[in-house]
Specification:
This protein is of the alpha/beta class and about 450 residues long. It is built from 18 helices and 13 strands. β4 (about 65-70), α3 (about 80-100) and β5 form a beta-alpha-beta unit.
């Protein structure tokens, strides 16, 4: 069978093309970056194409089936939801019906439905209009797949989640309890290939996801484990603050994090009835196994691997700083100027002595623990302490900020050392084997080690 795969250079499209080829089908690659040819078709949904013209193009390439994997998460000047998700695909679907194409599959998104919440989300609404248009093109055989979060090679959202999971302090929308059912792109591709081969007309909407519904926090923890990182520190954040961050992120050169994607996450991404096991003929693979087959690839590599001697040297220098500061402050409170600083900060007399005792105790604890029991939370406290001490001194003794010896400026490299140790991966990261990505085949995720 000759199958046109639209969006063939993207995460889902490239996996679908590979899955179809592995099962003996011929693939016509459809994408913006390809040149027209017998087995390729340049597709740019931003440019209107009449259905009659689509019909000519499809007949010329003897296309039997069409799979539309084209999608964007964030619109811009060059791409809009209206054209990429709605008008462009509808033109193609109508052209396929006119050309006598037997079957058309549309990759939509979980959460697309005819309700107020979906209609209020531009991404979901644009997908819904194309889904409905395809379903109304009788007698064309059709299927709409609405997957949960897709991860695997080339997944932009997967790379974002891997980056977030690699941070030493991970921000969560609320408490991170939003439910998701991530599925591997190879199994999504296998399900699509099986639908193409199915003798009977599917003519249905399929909601699909991974084998289990897990929390957003648990998903990030799974990514972090797959990256070989240790325990993380979690920071619950109000949804209003996350929305503000998403609004700011929309101005950055990235294609994943937006207010729309945050709203969809908040709504949850779990199928009401998971059709993936029936489509595959077996249980889908879990997140741990899937990330073992194709390890996560962060947008920005934040993992730091240090040899044990280097890590110890950095920890020892940091511990020395905390212990030395406590010792000098405690033994020479007048000569060191610490009492003067405390007084200028509003802690004079008995309050100054109490503040001095607290500061020395904290510094001794930080120095000792850095040497004998380093933990992620310890570096978090040190980062807060360095920033707090620096800002307090800068506000109350501004002359220190322009001192030629840079007594406060030197805290910048100190803070970077703290952050470096905070992000340091376990020693096993140094011995991690190279990433291995295997081509999608039947039952791949069940067989791969």
């Amino acid at each position: 069978m000759r199958v046109l795969v639209c969006g063939a250079t993207g995460c889902v499209g490239s996996a679908v093309a590979s899955a179809l080829r592995s099962r003996g089908h011929q693939v016509v690659l459809g994408a913006r970056g390809v040149s027209d040819g017998p087995n390729a078709l340049r597709i740019d949904f931003m440019r209107p194409v009449a259905p009659a013209e689509w019909a000519v193009r499809l007949r010329e390439r003897r296309v039997d089936a069409v799979v539309n994997c084209v999608g964007i998460l964030i619109p811009g000047r060059a791409q809009s939801f209206e054209r990429v998700h709605t008008l462009g695909p509808i033109e193609l679907f109508r052209g396929a019906a006119a050309a006598g194409v037997r079957r058309v599959l549309q990759v939509s998104a979980l959460g697309v439905r005819d309700d107020a919440r979906s209609l209020a989300t531009p991404y979901l609404h644009s997908k819904l209009r194309a889904d409905d248009a395809l379903a109304g093109l009788s007698p064309l055989q059709w299927a709409v797949l609405r997957p949960s979060l897709v991860y695997g090679p080339g997944s932009q959202s997967g790379r974002l989640f891997a980056t977030l999971a690699s941070l030493p302090l991970i921000g969560l929308p609320g408490r991170g309890t939003q439910r998701v059912a991530p599925l591997h792109v190879f199994e999504l591709a296998e399900a699509i290939a099986r639908l193409i081969e199915q003798p009977a007309a599917p003519d249905a909407v399929f909601e699909i996801g991974g084998p289990q519904a897990i929390s957003y926090r648990a998903m990030l923890a799974g990514y972090r484990k797959a990256l070989g990182l240790g325990e993380a520190q979690w920071l619950p954040a109000p949804m209003a603050l996350m929305m503000l961050g998403a609004w700011l992120a929309e101005a950055l050169p990235q294609k994943v994090f937006s207010r729309d994607t945050l709203r969809m996450l908040e709504c949850g991404s779990v199928p009401a009835r998971n059709d993936l096991p029936a489509l595959l003929g077996r249980a889908p693979s879990g997140l741990t196994h899937g990330l073992g087959v194709s390890p996560p690839e962060p947008l920005v590599e934040l993992g730091v691997a240090l040899s044990s001697p280097v890590a110890f040297a950095l920890r020892a220098s940091l511990a020395f700083m905390w212990l030395y500061t406590a010792l000098i402050s405690a033994l020479l409170p007048h000569q060191s100027g610490v009492l003067t600083l405390l007084a200028r900060c509003g802690f004079g007399g008995a309050f100054g002595v109490a503040a001095l005792v607290f500061s020395c105790t904290l510094n001794i604890a930080l120095g000792t623990l850095t040497l004998v029991r380093p933990r992620p939370w310890l570096y978090a406290i040190q980062a807060i302490a360095v920033v707090g001490y620096t800002l307090t001194a800068a506000i109350n003794m501004p002359e220190l900020t322009i001192d030629h010896c840079g007594p406060l400026v030197k805290n910048v490299p100190v803070l970077m050392v703290v952050l470096l140790l905070w992000m340091t991966a376990p020693a096993r990261m140094l011995r991690r084997t190279p990433r291995r990505v295997v081509a999608p085949e039947r039952g791949l995720l069940r067989k791969a080690v």
